[in-house]
Amino acid sequence: xxxxxxxxxxxxxxxxxxxxxxxxxxxxxxxxxxxxxxxxxxxxxxxxxxxxxxxxxxxxxxxxxxxxxxxxxxxxxxxxxxxxxxxxxxxxxxxxxxxxxxxxxxxxxxxxxxxxxxxxxxxxxxxxxxxxxxxxxxxxxxxxxxxxxxxxxxxxxxxxxxxxxxxxxxxxxxxxxxxxxxxxxxxxxxxxxxxxxxxx
Length: 200
Prior knowledge:
The chain is mainly α. The chain contains ten helices and two strands; from the N terminus they run H-E-E-H-H-H-H-H-H-H-H-H. Strands 1-2 form a two-stranded antiparallel ribbon. Strand 1 (27-31) and strand 2 (38-40) form a beta hairpin. The longest helix is centred in the C-terminal third of the chain and has 20 residues, at 136-155.
């Protein structure tokens, strides 16, 4: 009986991991730093986890980088069902809308529900904490999620900003406030580099 329970548990765990592989098929508007192709959401999640590890010194008091890394590895899994909605696209207003939030919640229910409850429930709770962006860990994680595409656009010579005719005011409004909330020093550094793309 124990062997069967172990097999059932492993089957559920691998079902989730195989489902998570689909995140690699979700293409984002942001390109790689060299501009050679679009980044996928799996790559984005890995890169953000590395951002958290390397930029831990930019986190505020009480932030647990281990928890931030876990959030960032999980935060976009719902895009397997919902896809990516770029904040600067023509329908960027859908980003964060009630309709998108409901679709993402349903996706979270399905995807985390593939796991045994003792694993899936805490992972789902971490995803929800990230989405709420109220805890110090989630605020810092959101800051990194917003700043990474900015840095890749800078590195690639404008990237998706060119594609979507983005203005500096849009970057400041849609990105700056969220980054500054969790990593003010990071936003100061990035803002100084926006002038090359958005002359005053």
